[in-house]
């Protein structure tokens, strides 16, 4: 069966081309028959008719609008087992086409419901992904027009918009004008990009004996980045965090001194602007001063927390961020963008260009004028999608002010959760609300720590099984804790009240035996 039943007439352009090619030299009839043979059927060109594209496109838009308009009522989605999904979705590569309506039916019935809705107002796990419809529209355009954002010659306005949006972020962070950066697929890629710049600037790419420093709360993407850049595991010195899960400058200074005495080459401090575990912010001014004194590169991983510089509360929390050598900041985390858009900023933009500079004969045309920016020259990707468009459109449509209020609400919701928990007997706040994250445990009177651990694990399972809210746990000082990250600006006070009331009701139902279960 044909994918495209109707509309199998040649496009005007090809018709024109055919007429030009055969003008005057062949009979109309002959040209038509040649034409029919020379031009493939539409489905061989992977085309749909304009009517079909509109019908399908409107259906997709309707699905999206229903999704956005109905946020809180719909289910949070399912996480079926591999076996179940194998049974539904395993099939041989289809030799023939299927009507697109049927494929969309299947996406609607079997694919979308079997993914978590990380943009749901009661999705509090990991880092939620509360994207926004304007960003979605931008992604549709970027992918529909397939804008190439690697070189000026192929995507001039895309590069210009990326320059502008990066500059907005640079200004919010208080970095100097010489600073620059680019958008990446996410924070992992931003960290590897920034640390490649650090390696080049400080080590001239020779990693022998070099050491980077971070707290034990640092995201594993940093370990992975250093591994990819040729550093061994012992070349990342994880300093134990202080009692508030921050990197302690004094311990760090001692570690650096000990490494220098042992003949190693300290080159970089990696600090957190909002850890994924607790939202802790390392003491940036003190670490910047230490980096200056020790002549080290200061990279700050703000994948999660740095987007909050868009609001006053974030800026107050992140004093010192203006002193970084490089910074990771993910718009797809707390700036409400669809995946994938991470960002990296570097104090001196030249460091990125120097670290990534290569020449290739097949890209000679792409070099262009001095002021024509080729983002492919400052990072890992050559072919890059037009990621800047979604953040640009979002900031233009809502304005910084409304985006700032939306971010600030995340801080407030976490504080509300803390108040609710402190008001209920038996609940302990492990780390207070900071940067939109709170961690806590239920510790009924007389229970042993092991029993509380078991209760924590069972509570997570119980609340997620019910499906009205989604939470994840993390581990602090070797013990599991509940963790809530309510940064979705569509999360209501009632969403939180109900979730915490439900947790309290569930904990009362859970029996943990005298011998600790786990
Ligand atoms: C999420 C996160 C990362 C990784 O970013 P991705 O966009 O998931 O690749 C790195 N660091 C921190 C602190 C994060 O929270």
TrEMBL record:
Matching entries from InterPro entries are given as: Aromatic_deC (IPR010977), PyrdxlP-dep_de-COase (IPR002129), PyrdxlP-dep_Trfase (IPR015424), PyrdxlP-dep_Trfase_major (IPR015421), PyrdxlP-dep_Trfase_small (IPR015422)
Which keywords describe this protein according to UniProt? Answer: Decarboxylase, Lyase, Pyridoxal phosphate
The answer, when asked if Lyase is one of the entry's keywords, is yes
Q: Give one GO biological process term.
A: amino acid metabolic process
Necessary cofactors = pyridoxal 5'-phosphate
N6-(pyridoxal phosphate)lysine: residues carrying this PTM: 333
- Give the Gene Ontology MF terms in alphabetical order: carboxy-lyase activity; pyridoxal phosphate binding
Specify whether Lyase is a keyword of the entry: yes
Q: Which family does it belong to?
A: Belongs to the group II decarboxylase family.
Q: Which PANTHER family match?
A: GROUP II PYRIDOXAL-5-PHOSPHATE DECARBOXYLASE, MIP05841P
Q: What is this protein's record name? A: L-2,4-diaminobutyrate decarboxylase
């Amino acid at each position: 069966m044909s994918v495209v039943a109707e509309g199998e007439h040649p496009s005007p352009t090809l018709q024109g081309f055919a007429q030009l090619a055969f003008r005057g030299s062949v009979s109309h009839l002959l040209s038509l028959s040649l034409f029919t043979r020379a031009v493939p059927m539409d489905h061989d060109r992977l085309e749909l008719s304009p009517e079909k594209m509109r019908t399908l496109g409107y259906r997709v838009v309707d699905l999206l609008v229903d999704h956005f308009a109905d946020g809180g009522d719909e289910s949070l989605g399912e996480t079926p087992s591999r076996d179940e999904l194998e049974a539904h979705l395993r099939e041989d590569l289809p030799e023939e086409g299927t009507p697109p309506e049927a494929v969309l039916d299947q996406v609607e019935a079997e694919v979308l419901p079997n993914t978590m809705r990380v943009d749901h107002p009661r999705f509090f796990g990991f880092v939620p992904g509360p994207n926004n419809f304007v960003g979605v529209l931008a992604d549709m355009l970027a992918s529909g027009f397939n804008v190439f954002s690697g070189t000026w010659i192929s995507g001039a306005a895309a590069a210009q918009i990326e320059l502008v949006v990066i500059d907005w972020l640079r200004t919010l962070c208080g970095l100097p004008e010489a600073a620059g950066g680019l958008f990446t697929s996410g924070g992992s890629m931003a960290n590897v990009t920034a640390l490649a710049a650090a390696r080049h600037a400080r080590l001239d790419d020779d990693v022998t004996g070099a050491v980077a420093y971070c707290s034990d709360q640092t995201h594993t993407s940093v370990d992975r980045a250093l591994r990819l850049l040729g550093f061994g595991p012992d070349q990342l010195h994880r300093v134990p965090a202080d009692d508030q899960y921050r990197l302690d400058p004094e311990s760090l200074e001692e570690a650096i001194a000990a490494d220098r005495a042992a003949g190693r080459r300290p080159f970089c401090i990696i600090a957190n602007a909002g850890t994924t575990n607790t939202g802790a912010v390392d003491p940036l001014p003190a670490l910047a001063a230490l980096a200056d004194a020790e002549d080290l590169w200061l990279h700050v991983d703000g994948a999660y927390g740095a987007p909050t510089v868009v609001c006053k509360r974030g800026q107050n929390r992140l004093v010192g961020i203006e002193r970084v050598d490089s910074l990771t900041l993910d718009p797809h985390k707390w700036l409400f963008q669809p995946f994938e858009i991470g960002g990296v900023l570097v104090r001196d933009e030249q460091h990125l260009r120097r670290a990534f500079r290569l020449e290739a004969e097949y890209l000679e045309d792409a070099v262009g004028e001095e002021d024509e920016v080729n983002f492919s020259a400052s990072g890992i990707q050559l072919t890059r999608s037009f990621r800047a468009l979604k953040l640009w459109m979002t900031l233009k449509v809502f304005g910084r002010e409304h985006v700032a209020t939306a971010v600030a609400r995340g801080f407030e919701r976490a504080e509300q959760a803390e108040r609710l928990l402190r008001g209920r007997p038996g609940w302990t706040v492990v780390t207070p609300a900071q940067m939109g994250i709170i961690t806590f445990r239920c510790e009924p009177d007389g229970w042993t720590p092991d029993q509380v651990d078991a209760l924590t694990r069972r509570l997570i399972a119980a609340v997620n099984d019910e499906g009205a809210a989604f939470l994840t746990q993390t581990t602090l000082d070797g013990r599991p804790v509940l963790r809530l990250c309510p940064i979705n600006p569509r999360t209501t006070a009632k969403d939180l009240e109900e979730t915490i009331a439900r947790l309290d009701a569930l904990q009362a139902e859970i029996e943990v035996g005298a011998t600790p279960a786990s």
